[in-house]
Amino acid sequence: MIRIEALTHVYPGGRRQPPRTAVADLTLHIPEGRFTILSGPNGSGKSTLFRILCGLARPSRGRVLVAGRDLLADPAAARARMGVVFQSPAVDKHLSVQENLSIHAALYGLTGAAFRARLDEALGWTDLDGRLGDRVDTLSGGLARQVELAKCLLTRPRLLLLDEPTTGLDPASRRSFLSALTRLRRERGMTVLMTSHIFSEAEDVDSVAIMANGRLLAHDTPQALRARLNTDVLVIDSPEPDTLVERLRADLGVTAIRHGDELRVDEPPGHTDAVALLERVLKDYRPLVRGITVKQPALEDVFIHVTAEARAARSGATPQETAA
Ligand SMILES: Nc1ncnc2c1ncn2[C@@H]1O[C@H](COP(=O)(O)OP(=O)(O)OP(=O)(O)O)[C@@H](O)[C@H]1O
């Protein structure tokens, strides 16, 4: 459904700013009917890629096909197949749900009975039943987001692009928004591409793409990504993380990745495992440990591992020196 081929985007520099490569030679294929989450650290190029995919920015090089249509050569045909939910609200909060939806539908020539049929269909994927007459600014954050979703479903897109649509929602609202997307994919075969920083959202999707520094670092199913870390992960909360990183390296040959205030060891040296290492750390470095846990690898651990590796490869440093 989406074929991104050798895509590069360079923001031209100004008098005081050098040019900045936001997307670098990125190739990514997303087959029809997949729910894919695109994630990456701040500044990794997700928004730039998103803007290119929805036709708001023109890449410096490369090609994007949407449902076989060349986005650059024939943007109208490619865009006709997609619905977009932006991070910032794109509905008028002073108007009612119905007013917002009918104005949007009219832009696409949908009025009268045709509009009502599409409206019923779009609302069927949301929890907006009975709220049509309510002004958007009186709805909860979760329902307001669903208005954005209903709006783009009015035109029956085959592809949904969503930029961090669940940011700021409480867990229950997030779950119901994601469940609508999952149903659209399962029952309508809709292709969904969504950016997100929330890894719990990605555990059940079809595939996860991880970007950093404009490059694609990984794209695979959540199961396959988790399988990249084939041991349990040791997570240490330390009052002196830098000291502990250094001691672990010098004394035990263990590479710990620093992530915020935490240290993570996701590749204990060959002769040991995470539990044995936990016991050793508690025995030898007790004053440097505030809390310590062994857990099964989750997607967030893979993300931290893959992005630390990429930073290390770029700088020639070890992963612990390139902490997020
Ligand atoms: N208009 C612009 N002009 C120059 N550089 C830009 C512009 N927009 C983004 N960049 C740079 O391009 C790189 C990628 O930014 P982008 O916003 O695409 O990343 P992101 O992954 O979406 O980040 P975030 O998660 O913080 O939204 C960054 O280095 C950013 O500073």
Automatic annotation (TrEMBL):
It comes from the Bacteria. Signal peptide: none annotated. GO terms for molecular function: ATP binding; ATP hydrolysis activity. Residues 2-238 form the ABC transporter domain. InterPro entries: AAA+_ATPase, ABC_transporter-like_ATP-bd, P-loop_NTPase. Transmembrane segments: none annotated. Keywords: ATP-binding, Nucleotide-binding. PANTHER family: ABC TRANSPORTER (PTHR43582:SF5), LINEARMYCIN RESISTANCE ATP-BINDING PROTEIN LNRL (PTHR43582). This is ABC transporter ATP-binding protein. It comes from Roseospira marina.
